[in-house]
Every structure is written in C-alpha cells, then in structure tokens.
Amino acid sequence: MPDHRERITKTVEMSGEPVEIYMTKMMTPCTSEEFKAMSVEERETAKVQPPLNQRTYSPEEGIVCMQDIPVKMRDGVTIYADIYKPEAEGRYPLIISWSFYGKRPFDGQSEWQIMGVPPQTVSNMSKFESPDPGYWCRRGYAVANVDPRGIGHSEGDFVQFGSQDGKDGYDFIEWAAKQSWCSGRCALSGNSCVAMTQWRIASQQPPHLTCMAPWESTTDMYRESLCEGGIPAHSFVRLVMKEACGPNYMDSTPDNLEKYPFIDCAYWKDKDPVWENVTIPVYQTACWNHFHLRGSINAFRKCRSRRKWLRVHRDFEWPDAYSNENLKDLELFFARYLKLERNGWELTPKVRIEVQDTGEFLTMKNRPEENFPLKRTKYEKLYLDASDRSMKKEPVEKTAMAVYESETGEVWFDYRFEEDTELTGYMKLRLHVAAESYNDMDLFIAVQKLSTKGDLLPVTLFGEPHPGAWGKMRVSRRKLDEKLSTDYCPVQAHIYDEKLKPGQIVPVDIEIVPTSRFFHKGQQIRVSIAGRYIRGDWFEPLMWNSDNQGNHLIYTGGEYDSFLQIPVIPPRFQDGDFIIR
C-alpha cells in the first residue's frame, strides 16, 4: 500500500550548522470517533491517540500516575510525560524511558507484541521496550514515560537520534530532578530504540543523570542501520517510522540517506554519540544474534566511563529484558547508583558472555571476562581454496576461482576443526573479487556452524534458525577508515564510491560482527558468500536495496590470499585432558 503522507524539506541545526533535510508528516493523532469517521485512505495517515487529560490517578494499588505532565524545553517547546511513582509520599529516584513509541502502552505501536514474553508478565503501564512501572514503583522508584519533541501531543518536529533529542533529554532530566517527588538522581533505561536515545542524551552530560542501562543499542545509524556495509536498507526503518504519531513532521532518515549518501557530513555526524562525554556508570547488554549487536559492543568499548559493564547473551532482547534473573541483576545496578546502596555491585564481572553451542544450548553461561575483545584471543587465518571449496590453515599455492550468479547463487567454503575450539570476538574476511560484467558488487556474508556430517547447526531463537554471524559490503565502498579500523575489525570509510570495471579484481576486507560459538572436534565452520541476504525462516523483516548483475567471481590462492581470520580462545588452564575454559 503506498504511503500517502506529505514530504517536505526543512532546515534544522545539526552539528552546529544549518542542514536541509527531508521530513515526513507523521501519523496524525485523532480520537476514536474521528478515526471512525475517516475514509479508508485518511485512516492510512492517522492513529488513535487519547486527548490530553492532565490528571493524577491510581492505575494499580500502591502506584500513582501523574498523566500528561507538561515540561518546557529551553527553546519554549512543550513535551508531555506520564510519571509513575509509589503512592506513599517521598522523594524517589527516577528511571526514564525516552522514545517515539508512545508514552502509554496502547499509544503509538500498540499492535507490536512482546515476543517471547508470556502474557501478563508486563503491566499495562509499561511502554514498549521499556522499564515496567508495575515492577519498579513497587521497589521504590519513579518511572517516566516521555513523548519526545513532536511525538503524541508534544510540540515541534521529531528529529530522531540526534543532538536535539539529546538536548531535550537533558532539559527533561534537569526539570525532573527539581520536582518534589524526585530524589534528584535519574537513570535512563530500556531496549532497542529506547536504548539508542540514551547515548544521545548522555552525550549532553545532564548533571542529574546518575547512570544508564541501554540494553541493546544501535549507535552508528549509518553503518548499522541505514547503510550497513554500504548497502542501503530502507524498508525496516520506513516500517518503524510509519508508526510514529504526532502533530507535525519527522526526520525521514531513508530519504536523507539518498540526499546525503556519504557519512562525512553534518547530517550523519549529528546522530553520532559523543563517546568521551559518557562517564557515568553504564550497564550495556548485547545479543549475539540481533542487529543491535555491533552498536551495543562498540558503545561499551568506546564510552569513557570507568564504571561500565557488558553482558552478551544468545536470547532475544525482550525475553532477556523481562526475565526475573535479569531484572534482579539490573535492580542491583540501579540500587547501587540511584539509591547509593552498598550492595556489592562493583564485584560484578566487567564482561559476561554466553558461549553458544547449537540451537538453544550454551557451552557456558555468563562466563566472567575482564574486557572485550578478550585479551587472550589468538587470531588465526583460514585460507579459502576455490578448487575444492575448503579452507586451510596454510596459504594456498595454486590460484583458483569460484563463481556464482549474483542474484540467485551462493558459494561457500568449509573447514573442519581437529580439536575442540572456541571462537569468541571479531572475525574478518579478506576476499579478492570481481564482477564479471558489471561495475559493482554487493556481498552478503554468513559464518555458520556445521555438524561432523556437514549439516547446518544454527543457533535458534523462538524456534527459528538464525542465518549466522554476518557481514556485508558494497565493493564500491571498499575503502577503509584508517582511524577506526584494526587488524581484527575493518571499518569502511563511506566517503566516496569507487566503481569497478567489468572483470577487475580487487581485494576487500569485510567486517564480521562479533560472535561466540563453540565447535566440538570434527565440527565445521562455513563461510557463505552471496549477492543477497539469505534468511531462511528467520523472522526479522530486514531487507537491503542490493545492486548486482551477472556473475560474481571469488579468487583464491597464489597472489589472491583470500582468508577468514578467526578469534580462537585458548583454555584458561589445561593439564592433559583437564581443561578449564
């Protein structure tokens, strides 16, 4: 169904300079009666929103909600929040959810289900991907569900994931800290979009922001969301954007990717967190099998806080966030920094990882580590050999070529482990490639596990097989950013296109997202290369605007040192057959 919403251009301040951007009219708030009276076409651009109703009421016994509280920003724009707190008089630390999902659970994206979380686990006070007042208020905290600028009945236009969101978050925190019901200590919390905004707010360093818990957070909007590997991805972002509801306009990031196709401009810089400004305590989580993975781990590595913790798991973000075990863990973190309890939180390992095996099975759960990547990592190269579609531990002498049809084909290379092997950390793939009859190539990489008999052994979430650790590259964007790249993690620069001549062979270094998998003796690792994303039954609606024609050629051996670099983790201790990992 076509999108009938109006698109305009506006000039806004970004990174300290005026930038002309595309903005799209959001879903228009309306009452139920107004919605019923609309035509089918009008309903496509409207969403039911309750009218402003400033009141104080009790949604559940022992909890008070101060609804539709107006808060004025520094430029005079008014935004609205629902504040939940314990019924007893007192001054409570505040946990803030900041996102465009709608500040009540049935506003905004009401039709989204919390997959993997049984009904009644989360109260009707909880907004999507956010801390549940039904849990936190009963433990002595207040919770703020905020409609940012432009969302719901909040005034202004919504410029997503930029410095304006950060400045407004600063103003809200400083307003809240002065209220009679607030202790003056505030935190940010939530998953996904709610986590992503936290880094932009923390970058502004509001004095009363005491700590933050961004559980799963994309942090580089260009490299991780809109243009992963240099391949544009519009559909998922448009799907999410379409549900934003407010009276005015929102920043249309897919359209602005077309307007600003390279990363070195004020538009994209404005969406980058200021890592050196984030010095408060941070509890970051990441999922090995989720598109927030890269951003979450980079956030942990880049922020300047000396009090930061990372937990990386195999489960999907929603069941992970609302599980009893993890809620109690987060409660220890908040109690330490919001209530100043001496509860031993500092003894929590700086890094905890789950080492995945097969399906839903783990080799180890929450294994303590000191850092990420792990210091004891030994990087090894597995050299691709197109003559027999294998990988070998030694360089391949004889040159060979593999070919696949770019729109429908696939080629893979396998290696069998001769002993139990753990791979945890960053992989990279060096390829020598050519487009037989075209001027560009989009490469989609999957790194997978095979059984001793050669059958795929995927990790599963919600019973569905994950495609595997991934990497992507548009070959015309092969230039790397020398400052951001390391020997174990190449990072593309995205500052110009460098088209191919048909048949021209070029080397490319492809970033593979971090992973943790255990391979038992005799099991195999596979590198799959294709011109499209091969998802199988994987449920996430991710699509890329690929640009391929004709055959792709992969060269190996001799002068073409194509290889997969893997992060091998040796045992902590070994004595004969006795091993401690």
UniProtKB/TrEMBL annotation:
Provide any one GO MF term from the record.
hydrolase activity
Instruction: Kindly name one Pfam family recorded for this protein.
Output: PepX_C
Q: Where is the Xaa-Pro dipeptidyl-peptidase C-terminal domain?
A: 331-565
Q: Which UniProt keywords apply?
A: Hydrolase
Q: Which InterPro entries match?
A: AB_hydrolase_fold (IPR029058), CocE/Ser_esterase (IPR005674), Galactose-bd-like_sf (IPR008979), Xaa-Pro-like_dom (IPR000383), Xaa-Pro_dipept_C (IPR013736), Xaa-Pro_dipeptidyl-ppase/CocE (IPR050585)
Can you tell which superkingdom this protein's organism belongs to? Bacteria
Q: Which PANTHER family match?
A: COCE_NOND FAMILY, PUTATIVE (AFU_ORTHOLOGUE AFUA_7G00600)-RELATED, PEPTIDASE S9 PROLYL OLIGOPEPTIDASE
Q: What is this protein called?
A: CocE/NonD family hydrolase
